[in-house]
Amino acid sequence: MAKVTDVIPDAVKERLGAVMEPLSKVEARIKELTDKLPQFSQVKTDQLRKYLDDILKRVKEARANVEKAFYDGIQRTFSLLNLPSKSEIDELKNKVAKIEKDVASLKGAKRRGRAAKVEKVEKTE
What 3 state SS string does the chain have? Predict the structure, then answer.
C-alpha cells in the first residue's frame, strides 16, 4: 500500500522541503553553537545555553507545526476528492476476508452434503 507521501506531487514536496530546509539549517547551527559553549565564560555560557535551548525548542515546534499543517492539508484534499481513508480501506479488507471465509465454509458444507448424498445413494444400491 502506498504511503501518503508517495502520492504527493513533487511540486508540493519541493515546497515542503523549501520550508523544512531552513529550519534544519537553523537547528544544526544552534547545535553547533551549543557544542562551542565551553569556550565562553561560565556566566555567558549559561545565559547563551538557555537562549539557544529556547530557540532550538521553537525551531522544533515550528517544524512540527509545518509538518502537521502539511499533512492536515493533504488529508483535507483527499477528503474533498472523496478518497477513502486507510482505516476505511482496512475495514473493507476485513469485511472481504470474512466474506471469503464464509464462502469457503459454505462451499465445504456443500461438498460434505454432496458426499453424504452419494454415500447414501451407494448404500441403497
Answer: CCCHHHCCCHHHHHHHHHHHHHHHHHHHHHHHHHHCHHHCCHHHHHHHHHHHHHHHHHHHHHHHHHHHHHHHHHHHHHHHCCCCCHHHHHHHHHHHHHHHHHHHHHHHHHHHHHHHHHHHHHHHC
1's grid cell: 500500500
pTM for the model: 0.42
List, for residues 109-123, the tens digit of each pLDDT value.
Answer: 777 776 666 566 566
Name the residue ranges covered by the structural domains of the chain.
7-83, 84-125
